[in-house]
Design a protein that fits this description.
Largest sheet: 3 strands, antiparallel
Structural class: alpha+beta
Order of helices and strands: HEEEH
Strand order of the largest sheet: 1-2-3
Number of strands: 3
Radius of gyration: 15 Å
Number of helices: 2
Helix content: 25-40%
Number of domains: 1
Distance between the termini: 43 Å
Amino acid sequence: MADYSFSRFNSEDFEHFIQSLSKKILGNGTITFGDGPDGGREATFNGVGSFPNLTEKWSGYWVIQAKYRSRAEEKGDDYTWVKKISKMKWKNLK
């Protein structure tokens, strides 16, 4: 397996990585979203996905969301940051 330097990702690289990973794991039925208003979604999938493994597949409607944090710009603990961002997103969806 190759080594990748995720530390050089920007927000767009990270989003594309998560979208590609979703397609690889769940399948080609994964719908990806580009820039713009998308409800905070990177991708969705509806159906039977090869997750958590090929013999025990889950089914349903999946929403894939990824959060990118630039360490150069922001300080603090990651858990606190994700919790704060998630609360803001949920408020906006209600």
